[in-house]
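Revision sheet: structure tokens.
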Amino acid sequence: MLINYIHPVYSGIMIALFWIVGIPYVISQTLEPITIASLYSKQYVDKKPIPYVEIREANVMWLKRVWRDVDMRQKQNLPFYFPIVKKEYRVSFAQLLIESVQNKFIIAYSAIDSSSNGSGDWDDTFQLPLNVKEAKRALSYKENVIVEDDFGDEVVVEQIMTISLDEITSFRIKEEVFFDKERSIMETRILGIALLIPDKASGREDIKKEAFWIYFPQARNVLARMLSYNTFNDANVLTYDEIFVKRKFSSRITKISNVYDRSLDSYLAPMDALIMAEKLEQEIFQSENDLWSF
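Predicted:
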């Protein structure tokens, strides 16, 4: 019978070689950076905006202008809010708009009517373009801070503070809902988007005001190149342009075109405004069915 036998001297040599050669090799393998943290190498696709069908005025049988508020903290809207800090290929919607304005990829328009003679009326007609410095000023506020002077005495100093990204939790949409009789469909097209920031200057942080407006057709090229997060499928990532065009977000109507040109919050209590918003949603939905009676 043959018995496999390793001499103790040879056994010791093999163990020594393992420690000298094997362990450093294993360590070097584990310390190497991972270049592809996925099953495959993801290719960036330079997407284009989803093309719109050209609309003729003669084919617009019915039209309403609608203003909506989107709360990015709602479950369906979380891809707008996160990540607060830029991560891999993803960036929050607020950060995307702010950086695009700062880099002059998108034009920001004043949210304050310049012809209101200082009355502070809000304007959403994209009439007054803002430069980078003016757009940055729209996202800042003045705050009194107590500091020590050179003599060690406490003094009140006015400082310019900037709204942080985590404080921007909602934005406003201005859009038009219309019925195209040539295609026999009801369609919605966004005209503009405005970030809503807390009104810290007045001390009422629960009140939201428009920072500046973005003309949506001008911004679509930027929105089409920035990927968001698809909560249902990581392999099919959507762009911000696709989210808006395909209406993959939840919102609440705050105003609809009316003879008084007033918003729901201006004459209704918060709960009544919410009920009226739901009622207006149903009226818009029912309008398409009513048009078929002609």
